[in-house]
Amino acid sequence: MKRKVFIVDDDNNIRELIKKFLENEDYEVITFPNSNGVLESLRSIKPDCVVLDVMMPGGSGLDLCREIRKEFTTPIIFLSAKGEEIDRILGIELGGDDYLVKPFSPRELMVRIKALLRRSNLQFSRNRSRKIEFGNITIDKDARLLLINQQAITLTNKEFELITYLVENANKAMSREQIIDTIWGYDYIGEMRSVDDLVRRLRKKLRNGHANVSIETVWGYGYKLGKE
Hints:
single chain; alpha/beta; Rossmann fold; Arc Repressor Mutant, subunit A; 8 helices
Protein backbone atom coordinates (compact mmCIF):
# COMPACT_ATOMS: atom_id res chain seq x y z
CA MET A 1 0.00 0.00 0.00
CA LYS A 2 1.32 3.42 -0.94
CA ARG A 3 2.17 5.95 1.73
CA LYS A 4 -0.15 8.96 1.72
CA VAL A 5 1.07 12.53 2.15
CA PHE A 6 -1.00 15.71 2.39
CA ILE A 7 0.53 18.89 0.95
CA VAL A 8 -1.10 22.09 2.22
CA ASP A 9 0.35 25.20 0.56
CA ASP A 10 -1.17 28.20 -1.21
CA ASP A 11 1.66 28.27 -3.77
CA ASN A 12 0.60 26.13 -6.72
CA ASN A 13 4.16 25.78 -8.02
CA ILE A 14 5.39 24.42 -4.69
CA ARG A 15 2.46 22.03 -4.39
CA GLU A 16 3.05 20.63 -7.86
CA LEU A 17 6.84 20.39 -7.37
CA ILE A 18 6.47 18.42 -4.13
CA LYS A 19 3.66 16.30 -5.56
CA LYS A 20 5.66 15.30 -8.62
CA PHE A 21 8.76 14.51 -6.57
CA LEU A 22 6.88 12.37 -4.04
CA GLU A 23 4.88 10.54 -6.70
CA ASN A 24 8.17 9.63 -8.37
CA GLU A 25 9.09 8.02 -5.03
CA ASP A 26 5.82 6.02 -5.14
CA TYR A 27 3.88 8.11 -2.60
CA GLU A 28 0.23 8.97 -2.98
CA VAL A 29 -0.13 12.76 -2.69
CA ILE A 30 -3.22 14.83 -1.97
CA THR A 31 -2.87 18.61 -2.22
CA PHE A 32 -4.77 21.52 -0.67
CA PRO A 33 -4.40 25.23 -1.58
CA ASN A 34 -5.47 26.25 1.96
CA SER A 35 -6.69 24.76 5.23
CA ASN A 36 -10.25 24.22 3.98
CA GLY A 37 -11.22 20.55 4.05
CA VAL A 38 -7.96 19.29 5.55
CA LEU A 39 -9.43 18.14 8.87
CA GLU A 40 -12.32 16.39 7.17
CA SER A 41 -9.92 14.61 4.83
CA LEU A 42 -7.68 13.59 7.74
CA ARG A 43 -10.64 11.86 9.38
CA SER A 44 -11.48 9.82 6.28
CA ILE A 45 -8.13 9.26 4.55
CA LYS A 46 -5.69 9.20 7.51
CA PRO A 47 -2.44 10.19 5.74
CA ASP A 48 0.98 9.13 6.98
CA CYS A 49 2.37 12.68 6.97
CA VAL A 50 1.24 16.28 6.47
CA VAL A 51 3.48 18.91 4.84
CA LEU A 52 2.06 22.22 5.98
CA ASP A 53 2.84 25.79 4.92
CA VAL A 54 2.92 28.27 7.81
CA MET A 55 1.66 31.37 6.00
CA MET A 56 -1.57 30.93 4.05
CA PRO A 57 -4.49 33.27 3.36
CA GLY A 58 -7.70 32.43 5.16
CA GLY A 59 -6.07 30.51 8.01
CA SER A 60 -2.44 29.94 8.94
CA GLY A 61 -0.71 26.59 9.07
CA LEU A 62 -0.06 27.15 12.76
CA ASP A 63 -3.80 27.43 13.43
CA LEU A 64 -4.46 24.32 11.37
CA CYS A 65 -1.73 22.42 13.23
CA ARG A 66 -3.34 23.35 16.54
CA GLU A 67 -6.66 21.91 15.33
CA ILE A 68 -5.03 18.77 13.94
CA ARG A 69 -3.32 18.06 17.25
CA LYS A 70 -6.67 18.00 19.03
CA GLU A 71 -7.49 14.77 17.16
CA PHE A 72 -4.43 13.34 15.43
CA THR A 73 -0.77 12.48 16.03
CA THR A 74 0.00 12.41 12.30
CA PRO A 75 3.59 13.65 11.68
CA ILE A 76 3.66 17.28 10.51
CA ILE A 77 6.48 19.04 8.66
CA PHE A 78 6.18 22.82 8.48
CA LEU A 79 7.28 24.80 5.43
CA SER A 80 7.97 28.49 5.95
CA ALA A 81 9.69 31.45 4.37
CA LYS A 82 10.54 32.53 7.92
CA GLY A 83 13.74 31.12 9.36
CA GLU A 84 13.78 32.95 12.68
CA GLU A 85 14.26 30.80 15.76
CA ILE A 86 11.04 32.05 17.39
CA ASP A 87 8.99 30.92 14.38
CA ARG A 88 10.63 27.50 14.39
CA ILE A 89 10.09 27.07 18.13
CA LEU A 90 6.45 28.15 17.86
CA GLY A 91 5.84 25.61 15.11
CA ILE A 92 7.39 22.82 17.18
CA GLU A 93 5.55 23.84 20.35
CA LEU A 94 2.21 23.74 18.56
CA GLY A 95 2.85 20.14 17.56
CA GLY A 96 5.02 20.15 14.45
CA ASP A 97 7.58 17.38 14.14
CA ASP A 98 9.97 19.16 11.78
CA TYR A 99 10.48 22.59 10.19
CA LEU A 100 11.93 23.35 6.77
CA VAL A 101 12.71 26.88 5.57
CA LYS A 102 11.92 27.99 2.00
CA PRO A 103 13.51 27.78 -0.46
CA PHE A 104 14.26 24.11 0.14
CA SER A 105 15.42 21.09 -1.79
CA PRO A 106 12.66 18.56 -2.60
CA ARG A 107 15.24 15.86 -1.92
CA GLU A 108 15.82 17.20 1.58
CA LEU A 109 12.07 17.23 2.20
CA MET A 110 11.93 13.62 1.00
CA VAL A 111 14.69 12.61 3.43
CA ARG A 112 12.87 14.28 6.31
CA ILE A 113 9.55 12.61 5.44
CA LYS A 114 11.21 9.20 5.23
CA ALA A 115 12.98 9.76 8.55
CA LEU A 116 9.72 10.75 10.26
CA LEU A 117 7.84 7.75 8.92
CA ARG A 118 10.66 5.32 9.69
CA ARG A 119 11.01 6.47 13.28
CA SER A 120 7.24 6.37 13.79
CA ASN A 121 6.96 2.86 12.38
CA LEU A 122 9.93 1.46 14.27
CA GLN A 123 8.78 2.95 17.53
CA PHE A 124 5.28 1.59 17.07
CA SER A 125 6.34 -1.96 16.15
CA ARG A 126 8.98 -2.12 18.90
CA ASN A 127 6.67 -0.85 21.62
CA ARG A 128 3.44 -2.74 21.00
CA SER A 129 1.31 -4.15 23.83
CA ARG A 130 3.43 -2.92 26.70
CA LYS A 131 3.12 -0.45 29.54
CA ILE A 132 5.84 1.08 31.67
CA GLU A 133 5.58 3.28 34.74
CA PHE A 134 7.81 5.81 36.44
CA GLY A 135 6.60 7.99 39.28
CA ASN A 136 2.98 8.91 38.64
CA ILE A 137 3.25 8.59 34.85
CA THR A 138 2.41 5.57 32.72
CA ILE A 139 3.47 4.98 29.13
CA ASP A 140 0.93 2.89 27.24
CA LYS A 141 2.94 1.85 24.22
CA ASP A 142 0.15 -0.04 22.52
CA ALA A 143 -2.20 2.96 22.60
CA ARG A 144 0.69 5.44 22.32
CA LEU A 145 -0.55 7.35 25.35
CA LEU A 146 1.05 9.20 28.23
CA LEU A 147 -0.99 9.00 31.42
CA ILE A 148 -0.34 11.21 34.45
CA ASN A 149 -2.32 10.01 37.46
CA GLN A 150 -4.32 7.96 34.91
CA GLN A 151 -5.25 11.11 32.97
CA ALA A 152 -4.32 11.04 29.28
CA ILE A 153 -2.00 13.83 28.07
CA THR A 154 -2.05 14.82 24.41
CA LEU A 155 1.39 14.41 22.83
CA THR A 156 2.85 14.69 19.35
CA ASN A 157 4.71 11.71 17.91
CA LYS A 158 8.08 13.17 18.81
CA GLU A 159 6.98 14.04 22.36
CA PHE A 160 5.70 10.49 22.88
CA GLU A 161 8.90 8.97 21.54
CA LEU A 162 11.02 11.20 23.75
CA ILE A 163 9.14 10.53 27.00
CA THR A 164 9.15 6.80 26.21
CA TYR A 165 12.89 6.83 25.60
CA LEU A 166 13.56 8.79 28.79
CA VAL A 167 11.32 6.55 30.91
CA GLU A 168 13.02 3.45 29.51
CA ASN A 169 16.32 5.02 30.55
CA ALA A 170 15.12 6.69 33.76
CA ASN A 171 17.86 8.20 35.94
CA LYS A 172 20.40 7.75 33.14
CA ALA A 173 21.97 10.74 31.41
CA MET A 174 21.26 10.58 27.67
CA SER A 175 23.33 12.73 25.32
CA ARG A 176 21.75 14.97 22.71
CA GLU A 177 23.36 12.77 20.05
CA GLN A 178 21.73 9.65 21.52
CA ILE A 179 18.36 11.38 21.58
CA ILE A 180 18.76 12.58 17.98
CA ASP A 181 19.67 9.06 16.80
CA THR A 182 16.72 7.50 18.64
CA ILE A 183 14.00 10.06 17.93
CA TRP A 184 14.99 11.42 14.52
CA GLY A 185 17.30 8.73 13.16
CA TYR A 186 20.95 8.53 12.15
CA ASP A 187 20.37 10.39 8.89
CA TYR A 188 18.83 13.45 10.58
CA ILE A 189 20.18 16.60 8.96
CA GLY A 190 18.55 19.24 11.13
CA GLU A 191 19.91 21.22 14.07
CA MET A 192 20.83 19.88 17.50
CA ARG A 193 18.63 22.60 19.00
CA SER A 194 15.61 20.55 17.94
CA VAL A 195 16.28 18.36 20.99
CA ASP A 196 16.14 21.37 23.31
CA ASP A 197 12.91 22.59 21.68
CA LEU A 198 11.31 19.17 22.11
CA VAL A 199 12.42 18.90 25.74
CA ARG A 200 11.07 22.37 26.51
CA ARG A 201 7.70 21.45 25.08
CA LEU A 202 7.51 18.12 26.92
CA ARG A 203 8.57 19.68 30.21
CA LYS A 204 5.65 22.08 29.99
CA LYS A 205 3.16 19.25 29.48
CA LEU A 206 4.61 17.24 32.37
CA ARG A 207 4.42 20.28 34.62
CA ASN A 208 0.88 21.19 33.56
CA GLY A 209 -0.21 17.59 34.15
CA HIS A 210 1.30 17.64 37.69
CA ALA A 211 3.78 14.85 37.01
CA ASN A 212 6.12 14.03 39.90
CA VAL A 213 8.96 13.43 37.47
CA SER A 214 11.06 15.99 35.63
CA ILE A 215 13.49 16.16 32.72
CA GLU A 216 16.78 17.34 34.19
CA THR A 217 19.47 19.08 32.17
CA VAL A 218 22.91 17.50 32.26
CA TRP A 219 24.95 20.54 31.34
CA GLY A 220 27.18 20.14 28.32
CA TYR A 221 25.83 16.65 27.65
CA GLY A 222 22.08 16.11 27.47
CA TYR A 223 19.13 15.18 29.66
CA LYS A 224 17.85 12.58 32.11
CA LEU A 225 14.47 11.79 33.65
CA GLY A 226 14.28 11.78 37.45
CA LYS A 227 11.67 11.86 40.20
CA GLU A 228 11.01 15.11 42.00
